Amino acid sequence: MAELPETEPEAEDCGDTCTIDLSKLKGRSPEEAGEPSDKTLIMLTRGTYGHHDDGFSAIQVGNALLAEEAGATLLLLDDGVYFAARDQDPTALGLPNNINYIEDFLDLGGRILALAGSQTRRGLLRDDLVKGVDIITPSQMVREIETHHASVTF
Amino acid sequence: MTPDLVLDCSGMRCPRPIVEMAKAMRRMGPGQVLELLVTDPVAKKDVPAWCQKTGNEFLDEEETSGHFKFHVRKQG
Description:
By secondary structure, chain A is an alpha/beta fold. Helix content of chain A is 31%, strand content 15%. Chain A starts with 10 loop residues before the first helix and ends with a strand.
């Protein structure tokens, strides 16, 4: 059996193929999983605009949670990273710009996270994303999953 | 009643008015009154529910030809 590396993998090595052993997470006691919280993790895995409305729905759920003073974190994975593109402008599509909702989310204390591998595989640089988005590694993503009491996937 | 702040969310659909109200309330002081103007009838349920959830005081509501006016006092 090969030994596991002691250091965390580079984000670029994981990307969209990173898998999490959920059976281990499910089997853990509340104490092992960390302090309970009232935070919801909203995971967005699809692109936005056009025929996909998932991003719009995800941010609306997030803003509704934050408006009611519940915690919310938006985690962008796979094509979901496009949601936080800095210079997005869907005017030609006749759709509302999600930037306004993203700013609301951040103003209300929400956190937006983007998985590094998903970002880099799509050729997006840090500056291509909205200011305030935190780039995280797969290990950090696992810790985020552990510290949220519920998750919703779009 | 003379509100301390008037927030016009006419034309916005829920949850946007609630989000705007939450943002506005953060800028207000304890005891101050917000007047919220909306056209989305869903707000009739959402605004009182939001007040109950957040501890702010729901004062009253008026409806005139599809336009709704709510008064909410920020918790002290």
